[in-house]
């Protein structure tokens, strides 16, 4: 069964205010940004009978706004535009690297960062970088606006904590206050391009003059219902030297912080092994 275009109602607001009003009055509308996730389901007939809210005409949500403290990425900004933005590339290289791994070029040209967040796939390539950069999701509804930390936006597989009348209007990311001593983005997939992640990870590491860890941020995806920031591992190594014994303890702790599953792409055992190996590889440089 395929999508029934002839019977699909499409509401096309021309401004953010119109979109918020329309969605507030009709929360059954299905928000449509780039459509790279929505249209897969629609083409299979899963969206038949559900009206769509086409957000593509909202110009104010297509902007990347750079400030002294960070960047605000509008809900309709694509992965390609993020890669092309010089300031974002210089200050948030892990996010740019992740955007370059989302599907192929055609998907990157259509798919939006906010749309991926709303889709809430456990395998979202951009989620580990957004987690270590401590991004904030800006949601808007007829009741007003609220800022939701990325860690609080995901409620499970394909589920978010957005309220029925809320739309994502932007994602904000602060510039890291200091240049990290080490940083990493890694995606493990079946092939080099256009593959869903078996494991995807991002890390930032700051060290002290004496070589001890000042701060570690490490996040990993495709190993739990939502992206996981490994706070217990971060706490373990803070203020410590990265000795062999500490690395072994950190790697063992990874397995306690994740909950991988067997699926068509990989096995839980493989994901658990790779997650620990990626952390060790990152910490040892």
How would you explain this protein's 3D organization?
With 285 residues, this protein is of the alpha+beta class. It has 3 domains: 5-53; 60-174, Uridine Diphospho-n-acetylenolpyruvylglucosamine Reductase, domain 3 (2-Layer Sandwich), CATH 3.30.465.10; 182-284, 2-Layer Sandwich (Enolase-like, domain 1), CATH 3.30.390.50. It has 12 helices and 14 strands. It has helices at 16-25, 38-43, 79-84, 86-91, 93-99, 105-110, 113-119, 127-132, 150-153, 231-237, 244-257, 268-284, and strands spanning 10-11, 30-32, 52-54, 64-66, 70-74, 136-141, 144-149, 154-156, 159-160, 167-174, 182-188, 199-207, 213-221, 228-229. The strands form 4 sheets. It has a 5-stranded antiparallel beta sheet. Strand 8 and strand 9 (159-160) form a beta hairpin. The N and C termini lie far apart (50 Å). The relative contact order is 0.11.
Keywords for this structure?
285 residues, alpha+beta, Uridine Diphospho-n-acetylenolpyruvylglucosamine Reductase, domain 3, Enolase-like, domain 1, 3 domains, five-stranded antiparallel sheet, four-stranded antiparallel sheet, 14 strands
Mean pLDDT across all amino acids:
93
Could you tell me the CATH topology label of the largest domain. Uridine Diphospho-n-acetylenolpyruvylglucosamine Reductase, domain 3
What kind of sheet is the major sheet? 5 strands, antiparallel
Order of the strands making up the biggest sheet: 4-5-10-6-7
Specify the CATH class of the largest domain.
Answer: Alpha Beta
Number of helices: 12
As a whole number of angstroms, the C-alpha radius of gyration is 20 Å
| N-to-C series of helices and strands | EHEHEEEHHHHHHEEHEEEEEEEHHH
Low-confidence stretches: none
Q: Approximately how much beta-strand content do the residues carry?
A: 15-25%
What is the count of β-strands?
14
The tally of structural domains comes to 3
Shape assignment: globular
Helix/strand class: alpha+beta
Named CATH architecture of the largest domain: 2-Layer Sandwich
């Amino acid at each position: 069964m395929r999508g029934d275009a002839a019977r699909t109602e499409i509401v096309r607001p021309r401004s953010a205010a119109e979109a918020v009003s329309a969605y507030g009055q009709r929360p059954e509308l299905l928000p449509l940004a780039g459509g790279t996730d929505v249209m897969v389901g629609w083409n299979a007939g899963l969206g038949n009978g559900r009206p769509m809210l086409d957000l593509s005409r909202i110009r104010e949500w297509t902007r990347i706004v750079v400030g002294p403290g960070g960047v605000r990425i509008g809900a309709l900004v694509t992965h390609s535009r993020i890669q092309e933005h010089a300031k974002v590339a210089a200050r948030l290289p892990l996010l740019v690297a992740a955007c370059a791994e989302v599907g192929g070029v055609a998907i990157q040209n259509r798919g939006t960062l906010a749309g991926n967040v709303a889709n809430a796939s456990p395998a979202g390539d951009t989620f580990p970088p957004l987690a270590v950069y401590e991004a904030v999701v800006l949601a808007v509804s007829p009741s007003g606006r609220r800022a939701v930390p990325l860690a609080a936006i995901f409620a499970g597989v394909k589920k978010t904590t957005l309220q029925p009348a809320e739309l994502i209007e932007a994602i904000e990311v602060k510039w890291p206050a200091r240049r990290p001593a080490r940083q990493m983005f890694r995606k493990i997939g079946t092939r080099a391009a256009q593959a869903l992640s078996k494991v995807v990870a991002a890390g930032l590491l700051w060290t002290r003059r004496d070589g001890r860890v000042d701060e570690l941020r490490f996040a990993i995806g495709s190993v739990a219902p939502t992206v996981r920031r490994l706070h217990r591992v971060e706490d373990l190594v803070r203020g410590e030297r990265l000795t062999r014994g500490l690395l072994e303890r950190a790697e063992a702790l990874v397995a306690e912080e994740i909950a991988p599953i067997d699926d068509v792409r990989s096995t839980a055992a493989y994901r658990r092994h790779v997650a620990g190996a990626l952390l060790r590889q990152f910490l040892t440089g």
